[in-house]
């Protein structure tokens, strides 16, 4: 009888052991600790991230990006030089306007001993600088010389002082350098045309500044027109260069 029970119990023990062994096996497609599906996914993600970073690094050093950066630097320098010339023109035209106004309305009422001092206060140059570089004495500033009126000598005195101070030279040097820099930029560069337009408007103002023509009544209108045109051309560049 005992043999019969042992005979019946043996298959059950074997089946139980096999079932227990089966529960310890990993499912198909999975692995043991240290190489789980989550860790495998994280490793793949890390590999992809490193690959993407390498691609970005490579993209940052491509010849195209290097060229773009160089063009941006060149364009910024050109913009700054044009803006310097613009500023010099604006301040210079303020001096010319003040001298012209003074010569018409104030100089004829001045005493000889005070006219240069009062002109100095209007145009912002020291009395000694005007006496040394203006080229015209107090009598001509008040009365003229028979061929030119006193206001004309006041105007020319201001122009002579601007020349002696190097203002005209500085304007020309800035614009010439800016023009050469713009020529280095390819025409398909994003701001090429806008930068060229800005240069053109300031160069036109500079030409007028160096050779003012017309009457005093025309002066304010001319200044406003030049400066309005410049501001319109400049607005398109302010976001990138201003």
Would you kindly provide a written description of the structure presented here, covering whatever features stand out?
The protein is mainly alpha-helical. The chain has a domain of 168 residues. 78% of the residues lie in helices and 0% in strands. It contains eleven helices and no strands. Helix 3 packs parallel to helix 9 and helix 3 packs antiparallel against helix 10. It is elongated.
In short:
The chain is mainly α and 242 residues long.
Proportion of residues in helical segments: over 70%
Q: Termini distance?
A: 106 Å
Tally of alpha and pi helices: 11
| Low-pLDDT residue spans | 1-38
Instruction: Characterize the main sheet.
Output: none
Count of individual beta strands: 0
Basic shape: elongated
Structural Rg: 41 Å
**Order of helices and strands, N to C?**
HHHHHHHHHHH
Features:
242 residues; mainly alpha; 0% strand; elongated; disordered N terminus
Question: What is the strand and helix layout of this fold?
Answer:
Elements: H1 2-23, H2 37-60, H3 63-106, H4 115-123, H5 127-133, H6 138-143, H7 150-164, H8 167-184, H9 192-210, H10 216-235, H11 238-241
């Amino acid at each position: 009888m005992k043999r019969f029970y042992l005979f019946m119990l043996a298959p059950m023990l074997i089946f139980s052991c096999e079932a227990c062994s089966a529960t310890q096996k990993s499912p198909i497609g999975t692995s043991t600790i240290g190489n789980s599906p989550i860790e495998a996914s994280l490793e793949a993600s890390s590999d992809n991230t490193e690959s993407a970073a390498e691609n970005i690094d490579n993209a940052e050093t491509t010849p195209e990006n290097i060229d773009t950066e160089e063009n941006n630097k060149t364009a910024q320098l050109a913009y700054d030089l044009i803006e310097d010339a613009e500023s010099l023109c604006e301040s210079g035209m303020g001096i010319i306007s003040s001298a012209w106004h003074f010569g018409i309305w104030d100089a004829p009422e001045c005493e000889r001993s005070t006219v240069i001092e009062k002109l100095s206060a209007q145009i912002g140059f020291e009395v000694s600088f005007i006496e040394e570089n203006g080229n015209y004495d107090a009598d001509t500033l008040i009365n003229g010389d028979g061929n030119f009126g006193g206001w004309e000598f006041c105007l020319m005195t201001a122009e002579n002082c601007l020349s002696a101070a190097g203002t005209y030279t500085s304007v020309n040097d800035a614009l010439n350098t800016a023009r050469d820099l713009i020529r280095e930029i390819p025409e398909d560069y994003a701001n090429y045309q806008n930068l060229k337009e800005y240069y053109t408007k300031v160069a036109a103002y500079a030409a007028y500044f160096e050779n003012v023509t017309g009457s005093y009544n025309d002066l304010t209108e001319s200044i406003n027109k030049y400066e309005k045109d410049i501001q319109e051309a400049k607005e398109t560049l302010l976001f990138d260069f201003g």
